[in-house]
Specification:
Number of strands: 16
Strand order of the largest sheet: 5-2-1-12-11-10-9-6
CATH superfamily: Aldolase class I
Number of domains: 1
Number of helices: 9
Order of helices and strands: EHEEEHEHEEEHEHEHEHEEEHHEE
Strand content: 15-25%
CATH architecture: Alpha-Beta Barrel
C-alpha cells in the first residue's frame, strides 16, 4: 500500500473567525497555518485566499503574495490553489491563480446547489475550458467531485482528451446539495473511478474523520482542514490546521500507513517535474 497523502485545506472561502478564531485571513496567518499543517505531516496545501478582513478573493496578486510567503518558509510543499472562487464569478476570474503556474490546482466537475438560491455553476464547457487552461500551463488537476455524476463527467472528458491520465479525484462528501458523507456513499464513489486513478476524500463537518479512517484503510488519501471542519472532536475547536493533520497521522500510524512527504506525493500522483522559464513551464 502506498504512503498516505494528507492535504490541508487551511481556510476555505466560507468559514470565518466567528466559527474558529484560528481561521486565517492575512498572509501571515496563512503562513502560520500552512506551516502547522506541513510540520504535522501534510504535503499539499489546498489554498483559498482572503483579504485581511476575511473577504474571499481570486485576485492573482493576492494568491501570488500568499504562495510566495508560504514557499519562503516551506519551499518543498505542494500548493494547490482553488479555482472554485465564489458563486457569481466568471471563468477567467476563477482561473486567475493558474496564471501563476502552480504545480496543481482544483478542477470542479459539475454544478451544485449550495443552499438557498446559491448555485455553484460548472457547465460542461466551463470544465473543458478549465481543463484546457491547466493542460496548457502544465498544471496537475485535482478533480473535485461532489456527486457520482461528476465522476461520470470527468471520465467522459478524459475519453475526449480534455483530462489526462493519471487522474486524481477529490471526493467532497457532506456538502449541502451534494452526496452525503455516509460510508455507503464513499464506497459508491470509490468503486466508480478507474483502477489506475488516485483519490483523496474530504469529509465535511462530522464526516471528516470517519471518512479519513475509511480512506486510510482502503489505501486512499485524506484531506482535512478548517475549510471542511473546525472541530478536533465534538464541541472541541481545533487550535490549528496542524492539530487536524496530527489526528489523521495518529490514525494512520495505528493502521500501519506511513505518511508521504511532498516528493513522494509527486511520484504517487504522477506529477511531472516542471520549472518556470520566462513565464512558461517546461520539463
Amino acid at each position: 500500500m502506498e504512503k498516505l497523502i494528507i492535504t490541508a485545506a487551511i481556510c476555505g472561502a466560507e468559514v470565518m473567525k466567528e466559527h474558529n478564531p484560528a481561521v486565517p485571513y492575512t498572509i501571515e496567518e496563512c503562513v502560520r497555518e500552512a506551516k502547522s499543517a506541513y510540520d504535522a505531516g501534510a504535503s499539499i496545501i489546498h489554498l483559498h485566499v482572503r483579504w485581511d478582513d476575511g473577504t474571499p478573493t481570486q485576485d492573482k496578486g493576492r494568491f501570488g503574495e500568499v504562495i510566495e510567503a508560504i514557499k519562503k518558509v516551506i519551499p518543498d510543499v505542494i500548493i494547490q490553489p482553488s479555482t472554485g472562487g465564489a458563486v457569481g464569478m466568471s471563468n477567467d476570474e476563477r482561473l486567475q491563480p493558474t496564471e501563476l503556474n502552480p504545480e496543481m490546482a482544483t478542477l470542479d466537475c459539475g454544478t451544485l446547489n449550495f443552499g438557498g438560491d446559491d448555485i455553484f455553476m460548472n457547465t460542461e464547457n466551463t470544465i473543458k475550458y478549465f481543463a484546457e487552461k491547466m493542460n496548457e500551463r502544465g498544471i496537475k488537476p485535482e478533480l473535485e467531485v461532489f456527486d457520482k455524476s461528476m465522476i461520470d463527467m470527468a471520465l467522459r472528458l478524459h475519453k475526449k482528451g480534455y483530462i489526462k491520465s493519471p487522474m486524481h479525484f477529490d471526493f467532497v462528501q457532506g456538502v449541502n446539495g451534494g452526496i452525503s458523507g455516509e460510508l455507503r456513499d464513499f464506497i459508491f464513489l470509490r468503486g466508480s473511478i478507474p483502477v489506475d486513478a488516485t483519490y483523496t476524500v474530504a469529509g465535511i463537518g462530522r464526516y471528516e474523520f470517519p471518512l479519513a479512517m475509511a480512506a486510510i484503510i482502503d489505501g486512499g488519501n485524506v484531506r482535512v482542514g478548517f475549510e471542511d471542519n473546525v472541530f478536533l472532536s465534538k464541541g472541541v475547536l481545533a487550535k490549528s490546521n496542524g492539530e487536524l493533520v496530527e489526528k489523521v497521522v495518529r490514525m494512520a500510524k495505528e493502521l500501519g500507513r506511513e505518511i508521504a512527504n511532498p516528493q513522494e506525493t509527486r511520484r504517487i500522483l504522477g506529477m511531472e517535474k516542471v520549472e518556470v522559464l520566462k513565464g512558461r513551464r517546461v520539463e
